[in-house]
């Protein structure tokens, strides 16, 4: 009787165009420019075509993402992957636009899903969200010493609507996200450092991001704080940048 078999490794085809859209509210968010500079450096190194929109209103978050989707679907060349970076103040499931109005993250995520963006159907869509998800603060705890692919009746291959997406939140549900006034956010700076200095699948890189952030001591309001990202994945294959 044979034992467990190693998984066959299948990776996304990354030979085509790589596209990125960053929507960043800088109003009352000191350190945002440092994060934008770091992201620009990362996207250049990873050969992404990158677009930045500063200080979008809540409605513009939606409109700019829809324009991004329309531009992707209108392209004649092969598109491999899309990154969307969303940076703003926020609550769980919502971001605050420059006009102090709220936009629902679910509405933003839907724009590029397998139903609504044909050019990205079955291709990776990565969302990076640098925003608070609540008001809780993590003081840390002391550690002791000691995809289903279905063939329809007519032979067509189908996939679920919401596969091939990766949502990377800067903090856990219910918690605030920290940002330094000059140096930018711990999350964006750590992510850029790991993505530009290491190789591996994106989930392996994100595990390293989580490890480094868990090791870091953040001083906020005169007290030591802890923060770690949360990763939600429906990727069906390995993603190498």
UniProtKB/TrEMBL annotation:
Coiled coil: none annotated. Keywords: Cytoplasm, Differentiation, Hydrolase, Nucleus, Protease, Thiol protease, Zymogen. PROSITE patterns: CASPASE_CYS, CASPASE_P10, CASPASE_P20. One of its GO terms (molecular function) is cysteine-type endopeptidase activity. InterPro entries: Caspase-like_dom_sf, Caspase_cys_AS, Pept_C14, Pept_C14_caspase, Pept_C14_p10, Pept_C14_p20, Pept_C14A. One of its GO terms (biological process) is positive regulation of neuron apoptotic process. Pfam families: Peptidase_C14 (PF00656). It comes from the Eukaryota. SMART domains: CASc (SM00115). Heterodimer of a large and a small subunit, both processed from the precursor; the mature active form is a p17/p10 dimer and the intermediate form a p20/p8 dimer. This is Caspase-14.
């Amino acid at each position: 009787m044979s034992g467990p078999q190693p998984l066959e490794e299948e990776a996304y085809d990354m030979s085509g165009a790589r596209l990125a859209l960053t929507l960043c509210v800088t109003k009352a968010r000191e350190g945002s420019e440092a994060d934008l500079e770091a992201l620009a450096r990362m996207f250049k190194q990873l050969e992404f075509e990158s677009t930045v929109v500063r200080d979008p209103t809540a409605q513009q978050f939606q409109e700019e993402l829809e324009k991004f989707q329309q531009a992707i679907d209108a392209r004649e060349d092969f598109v491999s992957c899309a990154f969307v970076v969303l940076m703003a103040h926020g609550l769980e499931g919502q971001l605050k636009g420059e006009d102090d109005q709220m936009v629902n993250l679910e509405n933003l995520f839907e724009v590029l899903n397998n139903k609504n963006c044909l050019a990205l159907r079955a291709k990776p869509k990565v969302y990076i969200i640098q925003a608070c998800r609540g008001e809780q603060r993590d003081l840390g705890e002391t550690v002791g010493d000691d995809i289903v692919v279905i063939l329809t009746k007519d032979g067509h291959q189908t996939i679920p609507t919401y596969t091939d997406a990766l949502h990377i939140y800067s903090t856990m549900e219910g918690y605030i996200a920290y940002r330094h006034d000059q140096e930018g956010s711990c999350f964006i700076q750590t992510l850029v450092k790991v993505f530009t200095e290491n190789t591996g699948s994106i989930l392996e890189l994100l595990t390293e991001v989580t490890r480094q952030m868990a090791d870091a001591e953040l001083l906020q309001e005169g007290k030591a704080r802890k923060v770690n990202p949360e990763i939600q994945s429906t990727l069906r294959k390995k993603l190498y940048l």
